[in-house]
Design brief:
Cupin_2, Cupin domain-containing protein, mainly beta, plasmid, RmlC_Cupin_sf, about 100 residues, RmlC-like_jellyroll, about 0% helix
């Protein structure tokens, strides 16, 4: 089945599931300047974050990455993640289940 979703029509405050109950889990994240997502993990998943617009300081474990619009970052979901927007920002995040093999 093919589904098309217009990101501009999703209510993301701070996040919305793009394709609810479908894999891989895909989330639209919108943060206001100064807003932060509390530190958390996504065990058993690989995470890809594409910053569509804005600027984010992404805490991954004990390191911080400064991301700008257009940047894409990939990491293992076992890492502690906490994004903080330094300006209004929107990101598309894909959380894929890790498979053995």
């Amino acid at each position: 089945m093919t589904r098309v979703v217009r990101l501009s029509e999703l209510e993301a405050s701070p996040h919305a599931n793009v394709f609810p109950e479908a894999e891989p889990k895909t989330v639209l994240l919108s943060l206001e300047a100064g807003e932060r997502v509390a530190s958390h993990t996504h065990p058993g998943r690989d995470v890809v974050l594409h910053l569509l617009d804005g600027a984010v300081e992404l805490d991954l474990d004990d390191e911080t990455r400064a991301l700008e619009s257009g940047d894409v970052v990939r990491f293992e979901g076992e890492r502690e993640i906490s994004p903080a927007a330094t300006e209004p920002s929107t990101a598309l995040i894909v959380l894929a289940r890790r498979t053995d093999g």
